[in-house]
Design a protein that fits this description.
203 residues, alpha/beta, Rossmann fold, seven-stranded mixed beta sheet, 6 helices, globular
């Protein structure tokens, strides 16, 4: 798999992603975060299935998402729909001295990802719905929603948990939205051409 991983890293580098994003992808082994039957495809630039209809996004989509998120040292970051924990691990590699929270409604995935990331002391994973965010740990510098929100419906509770200044990245339909809060003013950019599993409200 070493050759396949090197090809992926070269591809991401050629797409212009930052050194810190490339280094995170180099450090974190994707094969540990996918089921055994699809490990052979770990470094193909494709989404792969997880449990109960969940997926792990293709690496180029994750790299683009992280570039929009703009994670920085010392930040508090929340991922909703953290799946197998791959993106949490990448963020942890970039934000080594920050605090990272993952909410995953699928109990099996939450348990597996906790075990995979138990040595990452700056990551905390909770098995619960992300609909209400994580108010007890708010505000967050960054919020990443890793499932498609319905009809441009970013829950207001999440926006209220965003620090000022702060950024939310949220898939809506076939687009990624970058929502930025600065001086109490909220702006939005849309990046079309993506596909995500839908936001699950109940387990």
């Amino acid at each position: 798999m070493i050759v396949q991983k090197e090809k992926l890293l070269i591809s991401l580098k050629n797409q212009g992603y930052s050194d810190e994003i490339i280094k995170a992808f180099a450090k974190i082994d994707r094969e540990f975060f996918v089921p055994d039957q699809v490990k052979i495809y770990s470094y193909d630039d494709i989404a792969l299935p997880l449990d109960d209809g969940s997926t792990i996004s293709q690496p180029s989509t994750i790299a683009f998402t992280l570039s929009l998120l703009e994670p920085k040292q010392g930040q508090s970051i929340l991922e909703i729909g953290s799946g197998s924990g791959y993106v949490l691990a990448l963020i942890s590699e970039i934000v080594k001295n920050g605090k990272i929270y993952g909410l995953e409604i699928n109990q099996n995935l939450a348990i597996k990802s906790k075990k995979l990331l138990e040595k990452n002391l700056n990551i905390e994973i909770l098995n619960r719905s992300g609909l209400e965010g994580l108010p007890e740990q708010a505000p967050f510098d960054r919020i990443l929603i890793s499932a498609s929100c319905p009809d441009r419906g970013i829950p207001y509770s999440l926006l209220s948990q965003l620090r000022d200044p702060g950024i939310i990245i949220a898939p809506v339909g076939t687009s990624l939205l970058k929502i930025r809060k600065i001086n109490k003013i909220v702006s939005e950019e849309e990046f079309p051409g993506f596909s995500f599993v839908p936001f699950v409200l109940k387990s």
